[in-house]
Amino acid sequence: MSAEQTGRSSGWAGWLLGNRAGDASLRWGLLPVRVMVGLIFARAGAQKAFGWFEGRGFERTVEMLAGLGFPAAEAFAVMLILAELIGGILLLVGLAPRLGALVLVIVMVVALLTAHLGDPFAEIRMHWLLLTGSITLLITGAGLPALQWSRPPAPSVQQQDDE
Questions:
Q1: pLDDT tens per residue, range 2-27
Q2: Cβ-contact 121, 129 below 8 angstroms
Q3: Residue 81 contacts residue 49 (beta carbons within 8 Å)
Q4: Residue 64: pLDDT band by 50, 70, 90 thresholds?
Q5: CA 54, 31, 146: angle at the middle one, nearest 5?
Q6: Which of 92, 72, 66 lies closest to 148, judged by CA?
Q7: Per-residue pLDDT for 162 more than 60?
Q8: What is the DSSP letter of 131?
Q9: Is the pTM of the predicted complex or chain greater than 0.90?
């Protein structure tokens, strides 16, 4: 079947104007999302744990969580820091990416429903972007390059019949 018969353009114009991507495009296209989401979360975890990068440090993180009404604020601070720091590093290097993304989705949902509930969208748009990026990586996995990647899916029966 020709490109005219399928309604698809070929060449660079088809790529630029089209909405389909090959397997390699999808796998490599996830790299900037994974690296930035992982880097931002790992940095946030380091800020909360150690006070690095002009962060609050552990004691102020505990105070923040206690102020939000979290019981056992120290335990929640440890969980938050581990989730952000380890989840971010897992995404950054592409190891157990869905696990890291799942933990970070939970962190962002809790943050949006507690610390940022009622905040104007303009003030929390980055939080929504981080949640969206984490959900994307939860669905798709790491992409390439990564320390861990899955094999491409086996062709379906219909794909085999089409060939």
A1: 555 455 556 777 767 777 777 778 88
A2: no
A3: yes
A4: very high
A5: 100
A6: 92
A7: no
A8: H
A9: no
Rounded (5°) CA angle 40-32-124: 40
Among 74, 43, 42, CA closest to 61: 74
User: Residue 141 has what pLDDT?
Assistant: 87
b/e string for 57-79 if b means 16 or more Cβ within 10 A? ebeebbebbeeeebeebeebbbb
Closest CA to 41 of 118, 120, 117, 106: 106
Cα–Cα dist 11/9, whole Å = 7
Q: Are 100 and 37 in contact (CB under 8 A)?
A: no
Q: Taking each helix axis from N to C terminus, what angle separates 73-93 and 97-113, rounded to the nearest 10 degrees?
A: 140
Closest by CA to 84, choosing from 49, 117, 34, is 49
Instruction: Delimit the domains of the chain by residue range.
Output: 23-142
User: Mean pLDDT, to the nearest integer, of 113-133?
Assistant: 95
Helix ranges restricted to H, 18-144: 23-50, 58-67, 73-93, 97-113, 121-140
Question: Looking at this protein, which amino acid is placed at residue 100?
Answer: G
Which amino acid is it at 143?
G
d(CA 53, CA 32): 22
Six token digits for residue 36: 């930035």
